[in-house]
Amino acid sequence: MASTVVDRETPSTVVERxxxxxxxxWWIEIGWRHVVGIVTIVICIVPLVYVxxxxxxxGGTLTGSNQLFRTIDxxxxxxxxxxxxxxxxxxxxxxxxxxxxGTVLMxxxxxxxxxxxxFQGRQGGLTALLIVQMFPQMLAFVAxxxxxxxxxxxxxxxxxxxxxxxxxxxxxxxxxxNTFLMYGFFNTVPRELDEAAKIDGxxxxxxxxxxxxxxxAPILAVVGLLSFIGTFGEFIIAKVVLQRPxxxxxxxxxxxxxxxxxxxxxxxxxxxxxxxxxxVVLLFLAxxxxxxxxxxxxxxxx
Amino acid sequence: MTDxxxxxxxxxxxxxxxxxxxxxxxxxxxxxxxxxxxxxxxILVALVxxxxxxxxxxxxxxxxxxxxxxLVLALVAVNWxxxxxxxxxxxxxxxxxxxxLVYQLFVMAYTGYVAFTNYGxxxxxxxxxAVEAISIQNExxxxxxxxxxxxxxxxxxxxxxxxxxxxxxxxxxxEEPFTAADDATVEGERVTAVxxxxxxxxxxIAEQQAAITELRVPFSDDPSEGSVRTQDGSTGYVxxxxxxYDEATDTFTxxxxxxxxxxxxSGNFVSEDGDVLTPGWRVGVGLDNFTRVFTDSRLAGPFxxxxxxxxxxxxxxxxxxxAVGLFLAIVFNDPRIRGRKVYRSLxxxxxxxxxxxxxxxxxxxxxxxxxxxxxxxxxxxxIGWLTSPWLAKLSxxxxxxxxxxxxxxxxxxxxxxxIPADTIEAAKIDGxxxxxxxRSMTLPLLMISVAPLLIASFAFNFNxxxxxxxLTGGGPNxxxxxxxxxxxxxxxxxxxxVAFESxxxxxxxxxALSILIFIVVGAISYVxxxxxxxxxxx
Amino acid sequence: xxxxxxxxxxxxxxxxxxxxCSGSGDTGxxxxxxxxxxxxxxGTLTMWVDDTRINEMEPVVATFTESTGIDxxxxxxxxxxxxxxxxxxxxxxxxxxxxxxxxxxxxxxVNNGVVAPLExxxxxxxFSESAIAGVTYDGKVYGTPISIENIALVxxxxxxxxxxxxTFDELVAQAxxxxxxxxxxxQQGPDSDPYHLYPLQTSFxxxxxxxxxxxxxxxxxxxxxxxxxxxxxxxxKLGAEGVLDLAVDGEKAKQAFLDGQAPYxxxxxxxxxxxxxAGMDIAVLPVPSAGGQPAQPFVxxxxxxxxxxxxxxxxxxxxxxxxxxxxAAQDALYAExxxxxxxxxxxxxxxxxxxxxxxEAGATGAPMPAIPAMSSVWAFWGATEAQIISGQAEPVSTxxxxxxxxQDAVDKV
Lengths: 302, 538, 413
Hints:
The complex is a heterotrimer of chains A (302), B (538) and C (413). Chain A is flat, with a radius of gyration of 24 Å. Chain A is mainly alpha-helical. Chain A has 2 domains: 21-73, no CATH class; 85-291, MetI-like (MetI-like fold). Chain A contains 14 helices and no strands. Chain B is α+β, with helices and mostly antiparallel strands and 538 residues long. Chain B has 4 domains: 2-115, no CATH class; 123-138 and 250-285, MalF N-terminal region-like; 141-241, Beta Barrel (Periplasmic binding protein-like II), CATH 2.40.430.10; 292-537, MetI-like (MetI-like fold, Orthogonal Bundle), CATH 1.10.3720.10. Chain B contains 19 helices and 16 strands. In chain B, a hairpin with a 4-residue loop joins β12 (243-246) and β13. In chain C, strands 1, 2, 3, 6, 13 and 14 form a 6-stranded mixed sheet that branches. A 4-stranded mixed sheet of chain C has the order 8-11-7-12. Chain C folds into 2 domains: 43-149 and 300-366, Periplasmic binding protein-like II (D-Maltodextrin-Binding Protein, domain 2); 152-296 and 372-412, Periplasmic binding protein-like II (D-Maltodextrin-Binding Protein, domain 2, 3-Layer(aba) Sandwich). Chain C has 16 helices and 14 strands. Chain C has helices at 4-22, 54-68, 79-89, 106-111, 129-134, 168-176, 194-203, 225-241, 250-258, 269-277, 313-323, 327-337, 344-349, 353-363, 374-389, 395-412, and strands at residues 44-50, 71-77, 98-102, 136-137, 140-141, 143-150, 152-156, 184-186, 209-211, 217-221, 264-267, 282-285, 298-306, 366-367. The longest helix of chain C is centred in the N-terminal third of the chain and has 19 residues, at 4-22. At the B-C interface, α5, β1, β8, α6 and α7 of B face α1, α4, α11, α15 and α16 of C. Chain C: Pfam families: SBP_bac_8. Chain C: One of its GO terms (molecular function) is carbohydrate transmembrane transporter activity. Chain C: Belongs to the bacterial solute-binding protein 1 family. Chain C: InterPro entries: Maltose/Cyclodextrin-bd, SBP.
């Protein structure tokens, strides 16, 4: 579907390098993109308007009525900060930041190994990494509890009720699908660069830290972002590991408000979700610079 | 973020190789044998070793042999890999692999183990726990027996109870039935002192809780009159066991009927007549859980239909989210668009909200009579978005598209940066059309890094239980089927329905079924992955 | 004691803490000979509470800690997770000492051996029969009832002030006279809602399971037969008349009632607080009978239950049996949380008209079955009722197919 649209709309004319096109040309080359953007954003936002409306209505329902914004009252937001919400927020930011940095480093290192070295079991290892991720996690909540229980006997810091323990569990997934994304991207970095550096006497570690990582910044930012968002929304494992309300992550805390079907506090939940979306959007805004400034930054033309 | 890291390498750099003298960059210390990188490595490995040795000692103290063995092996591996010159790839793989081994593989191993047991409701723990539970559940208070104000007493480390019955104080122990203690002091309704005995206060009772709750003092010389026990240290009741466990023969005997219950292979105590005592315990059942899927007639009916839909759903979900995500990524990959940073950031909004919240909102919006789509957008139409079988399927795909395209959008935006602009520019000058450039250059190049993600996304959607559960619950349901499943159920939600919603929760069965599903998905992914390797060769 | 060394270590740790806490250095061997009357007991109980109840529980257990010296650590859990995690974690020895939960999981816990029987003794007389029935399984009491919940008919006094209806049909007719878009709201959803329809079902004499003489449920379904057929036909009728509409889900029903779009709604106390907050004037009444027999809602009992593997059985019993059961404790819980106390004396003091209305409607109710077989019923039940209400399937035969399928599933368990 997307491809046919591309076919019809993108002109093959050579674009002037300097100065934006005007008039009809502008519409053909640029203007329609704004239309696509606005339409898509409207579709993205409509369901979220319900969430925003519910967050401003202390006693209302989530989707009981299409008459939105009948009451505008910040009570839910005030109530958020009377409870543990701010410490959940902080916990989430810390846990997700550490997890995503860890994932980028470990995943990036693994991708480097797979991309640049030829060793026995490389192919098998790659395939295994991909397939392991597909294993059903149906019993994860029991298994993770058991494993943290025994680890806690030896390393209390990494056991149950520990945020560090939760980060460790999340890092268990560092070598996963994201490794492939990086692996593929690493492969596009010309090997000649490494070879040249090697001839200059650089070690593989220097090549990795100073050449490759810099060149693959876009994908590092993408993986960091994906890992951050993935961790940010994870609550199934987190609610097994963290039991004290002041240690919860946002996802766990929010889940509690919505978990009891009858007593669900949708207003509070919605307010919490609206605020929780802000760091994700801000992070993406901040990382975009890196995402779109790779090898080819600035030279890609539509 | 990444910039900083490239400036100060915190993790495993290598000692300078034999050709280091020719190195052009560096901190000037490479002439000596100990570069800064090596020092960093030394410190890091030393820290890991210290932690590991501490762990080994701690594991030894708590007798966690599994952890001990793992730590020893891990330490040896880490030290060998980082100080050997040969295991270069290992240096980059080991940190991630260690975490993977501990957390992911344990879940796999545990699930695999459970699949061969009858773990689930009624078979939840060990045999010892089951024996204990049956015993306490079958110790009943003698009907019409009095409530006895009770005092816990102790003499030479032997615990006893002092009770007041009909105004008279009596003392007894596990060995000796209650006998009158005329010299005891009774204040209010309970004994406060007995000569020769120490009366325990609540704090002391709390210290010996287990012993006190396990103590049974025979009510009289006649064992059939039962024994006194207490649960709170201050009130006693007369109990009789209706089922008595005999350790020597490993059987339960019903004290009223004399019937004996012997342990069965399926992990229960069973009488000759087939009466079963609960709880049972966890036992291995071999391949039973795996074969049940083929022998359970209830599963046969809708199985084929659900399988087809599961494949269709997973495939179409990947196709639609990728198509839309890629399209949007290409659309906004043009630096001439003003405000594209803002566009992009808003496009990921569906991804930034909790998925189950969005699914609930969509469920409300697609409501047949009152939903936003019918009532507002379509001016009061009566379209059964979630109640007609085909529309429900369509709705699920659309909602999943809404939820999933931002992921593909982010991935494609990143991956597009790897495509050399010069090549594309050259093709354009050669007069290639946009479609041709896309088909023969952009897409193949993109696929190299994105194809494995598409496979993973296929596998994820194949088991996308949450979406189905939140949006339609599998409905609209088939009429009259012996298992409650519906037109939008996936294989995984059928497993859930069979293993968890039909009476007892059966983790063993659920694990076995989900492993079977995993084998199917894994095989498809393996084949798909092999094919993407060919793409790479281009 | 499988994990002997950790236990020893824990005990050592505890001993150290004790020494540190007492701080007076007189904990030598010989001092223990002196009997102490002091309440200086020590130890910590872990109690799981769902997040809607944790705030009311906190001050109440604080009083307990004050008078006994036993610390109670409250752990917040989602209500749906308490039973599940209890079953999963008790066997590891790391579970809680006490949980506060709805009683309908009791059968599962007993079946898994994770809950310990309690002896309420004479205190059992302080509770209503249905409350005790809720925490009883197989003739044994396993918990202390804390509060009671059931649904009833809620009336919007701004639309109608008098309910002369003796039957459900009359009620619908009267409600229609109010001229609102909805008559009697009963929340539905794509899979209907058997819980909210249960008063209608029982009024036809078709309870879900047969009850034995002592009131406990057996595994034999009782939904079939002529009574069940009549109910199925009635459901189809209500569906055709538009009284029941699958599109009216919980959210829509609540919002419609809040907006004054219906004079009546069958719902529970969890919604009435929102109605009151919105300034509505409401009254709570029993649901009129549709089939001639009393309309019995399910009664849910929140109870306190003790883990079978608690390391502090005495302390846990002290809390659950000797403290939470008392009038004073239940008064305090009511004052904090506003839920109908299970203790009869506390309940008698409740002067809130709405809660009293629910209490009266629930007096004749049937305890929610706690037998494991119940979990096989819900999915079939809801799916079938939905198909009947929507007119998608022939009522009587579909209902009977369901009864056969459920009995089959129950017997397989």
